[in-house]
Structure formats: structure tokens, C-alpha cells
Amino acid sequence: MNDRITINTILLAHGGGGRLTHELVSKIFKSKFNNPILDLLDDSAAFEIQVGALNLTPLQLAFTTDSYVVKPFFFPGGDIGKLAICGTVNDLSMKGAKPLYLSAAFIIEEGLEISILKRIVDSMVQSAREAEVQVVAGDTKVVEKGSGDGLFITTTGVGVIEDKSLKISGSNAEPGDLIILSGSVGEHGMAVMNARHQFGFESEFLKSDCAPLNSLVTKMLETNQEIHTLRDPTRGGLATTLNEIAQQSKVGIFIDERKILVKEEVKGACELLGIDPLYVANEGKLVTMVKRKSAEKILEVMHTHPYGKEAVIIGEVKEEPVGVFLQTEIGGTRPLLMLEAEQLPRIC
User: Fold this and answer.
1) pLDDT of 250
2) What is the DSSP string of 109-145?
3) Res 65 pLDDT > 80
């Protein structure tokens, strides 16, 4: 018997990255648009195209799109413009692709100050330069005052997968893989919440980790080691991302709470607000599942990069039971479930 209440309208929690988001995607979108590429539900789609009429080797591309509705527009460590560029670059990178070109669509509410829009676009330009991508197309729409919450940005990106032997997907985690996390968690979500609600935490220390990860991924791939899965734990945080991978790959994921770095300022803010940092969004971190024999080499290379210098092995993949399990600081083990509703609205 199913005791769950039927939900007939869209809630804010449907956009929070947790169980309701996944139900919405599965029941409304995936069931209607289903095809082998979409059904993988990776951060970006990968497909091959034949170039020209000649019998040339097909080109393998990655393609992704995302919308950004963060509020406030500016927060310590980033802004909606930087987020829009980095988020799309990172989604391409999580498929092992080299990001190349982006488009940017702006839905602007009547009354937005031109100076604010200029500042956001300047930030996008700076982030695109760091990521070595170009914004080559776009669109602008203006809606009536009260209809757009200031500004929404949608970015779409395309990249090339140069090494066709790569089989990187959330569905490719294998029993025996070790799990590497590139750094501390929870900074982005808590920085945005602090900026929005002015909780009084020192913004000098509580900053978003928003960053383009493509150069870090390039270094990792250059090791020629076996990387099975790459994901950036954004909405729903590390816990939700690991649950997605466990379900896609039909494996058990065991992580050690003592190995996961949470900075003191993030930990303090989370404790005050009653929030688990493992469910808080990140915008400059990745988690990867790699062959056990490859882990130390990949870790060594990650430590040479600014965005991977805190990387650490946090756990391993097992055949069963399917799901995510946290080995706690006191020595026990408990299920780490997907985020049920929404902890932090409008953080990306």
C-alpha cells in the first residue's frame, strides 16, 4: 500500500535536486522524451556525428544545457554569471569532454539596472576566459516587472570527447572502484544562504567554491588511468549525487565520514541552521569512481592542481546492497538517503 500523498502541483522542492526532482524528471520528462542518450541521465549527453560526405572518423561530442536562477545575484566567491559559465563547463567536463562553445540566453525583468547586467556579463567573460571557452550565440527576452525575479540565465554548451575510448558515466561505477572527492563540501550553498538571509557569518571565510573544473579533469584524463564516473555534486550535494550514481550503476557506495572535509565555517553554519553539509550544493568540486589500481596516481595528479589540492579517497564501491552508506565518525554505518525535499532553495 502506498501511503504517500499524491502531489498535483509543482512545489519549490521539485527544483531542489532531491527525490521530488528525480520523480519529476522520471515521470514527466524522461518517460516522454526517452531515448538511449537521454536515458543515461548523465550531466551531459554524448553522441557521435559523421563529418561531411567523406568516410571520416565520426566526431564524438558532449552537449548540455542548464538554467540559473540564484538569488541574490552576487555572493562571496561568485555571482549568477560566473555560475552560469562554470556550471555548464563542468557538466561537459563530467563526461570527459573538452568544453568549446557556449550559448547564453537571458530572461530579464523590466526594471533591472543596466549596471547590474553589465557586471554579470563581465563576470561571465572573465569565467569564460579562465575556462578557455567562447560564448558564440545567445538570446535576450525582457518580461514585465514582477514576472521574472530580476534575471534568469540559461547556458548551453558543446564540447568534444577527444579520446573515444573513454566510457565515463554515472552508470559505469564498478564494484572495487575507489571514490575520490576533489575537496571540501558545502561552501557554495552556505555562502549563498548567508548572502541571502544575512545570518552574520563572516563572508571573508564563507565563500562559494564556484570554479571551472575542465583543466582539472584534463589533468586527470592525461594519466591514462581508468576513470569510470565523474560528477559534480551540485543540487542536493554529495549525498544526492552519490545516490544517483548508486541507482544508475546498481551498486553499493560506502563512504567514510571522517575522510570528508567540511571547513569549520561551513560546519558551524550548517549546525546553526540544522543542515547536513553532505546535502549542500557545491559548484567547484567533483567526485569520481576509479579503478582501485589507478586511484593513487589520479590522486597524485589532482593534488598538483589548485582545484584538486585537497582531493582525498572517501570510500569504495561494492556490489551490494544498492544504495549509499555512511561509515560514521563513531564507527557505525547508516544509509545516506537521497534528499527528500528541499533544504536550500534557489542556490544555483
Assistant:
1) 97
2) ETT--HHHHHHHHHHHHHHHHHHT-EEEEEEEEEE-T
3) yes
Q: pLDDT band at 81, cuts 50/70/90?
A: very high
Q: Is 80 left (phi over 0), alpha (psi -120 to 50) or beta?
A: alpha
Q: Please state whether the predicted TM-score (pTM) of the whole model is above 0.85.
A: yes
Report the alpha-carbon distance of residue 81 to residue 155 in Å, rounded.
10
- H-type helices in 171-213, by residue range? 187-197
Predicted confidence (pLDDT) at residue 2 exceeds the cutoff of 50: no
Look up residue 294 and give its three cell numbers.
Answer: 589507478
How far is Cα of residue 316 from the mean position of the Cα atoms in its chain? 20
* Positions of E strands within 161-267: 178-181, 227-231, 252-256
Supply the DSSP symbol for 257: G
Report d(CA 178, CA 174) in Å as an integer: 9
| Sign of the four-CA dihedral 318, 322, 323, 329 | negative
CA gap 231, 250 in Å, rounded: 16
Q: 146-166: b or e for each residue (b if 16 or more CB lie within 10 Å)?
A: eebebbbbbbbbbbebeeeeb
Question: Which has more confidence, 254 or 340?
Answer: 254
pLDDT at 323: 97
Other Cβ atoms less than 10 A from the Cβ of 302: the count is 25
Residue 186: predicted pLDDT: 96
Give 112-115 contacts, CB < 8 A, sequence gap 24+.
Answer: 112/150, 112/151
pLDDT higher than 60, residue 244: yes
